[in-house]
Amino acid sequence: MQIIIFVLVLIILGAVIYQKLRRKYTTGQILLGTTAITVLFIGSIYIFNMNEGGIKAAFKSKYKEIYGNEISKLSASIMQSKKGLEANEYFYRFVYITIKDKKEYVCEARNVFVQLIEDEYVFKEIKEECREK
Predict the structure, then answer these.
(1) Residue ranges of the chain with per-residue pLDDT less than 70
(2) How many Cα atoms are found within 13 Å in the side-chain-facing hemisphere of 42?
(3) Which residues pair with 29 in a beta bridge?
(4) Helix axes 2-24, 27-67, angle to 10 degrees
(5) Where is the chain membrane-spanning (predicted)?
């Protein structure tokens, strides 16, 4: 019910904005502006997802290099910023599923210090806690 009301409010708001803009601009100008805003919105979502995928891929390759196991599923979240960190230094929390000795484990690595140098992620130390799935 709430979703229907939200969508109706958005449609009404869009119609009101369109009517106000129609008085000042032509239909082609309104369409061009709407297209530009849509492209910017989609581009920002793409860039955000690309950056998030970069840290995940870097962690997977570093984990395989250190432990020799593949990660099948991975969730990454940035932790609150600590004082004294530079703009390119972060602490991450990784939760992932990996297979060790033919058994699936759910593992967690907290407070993983990550530095971003141009387009490369550098990990300081990965300490994991695992439990059987």
Answers:
(1) 47-53, 81-84
(2) 6
(3) none
(4) 130
(5) 29-48
Tokens representing residue 63 in the block: 């984990």
Amino acid present at 121: Y
Q: Which amino acid does the sequence have at 122?
A: V
Main-chain dihedrals φ then ψ at residue 74, nearest 5 degrees: -145, 135
Q: In this structure, how many other beta carbons lie within 10 angstroms of the beta carbon of residue 94?
A: 23
Closest CA to 91 of 65, 114, 57, 66: 114
CA–CA distance, 5 with 17 (Å, rounded to integer): 18
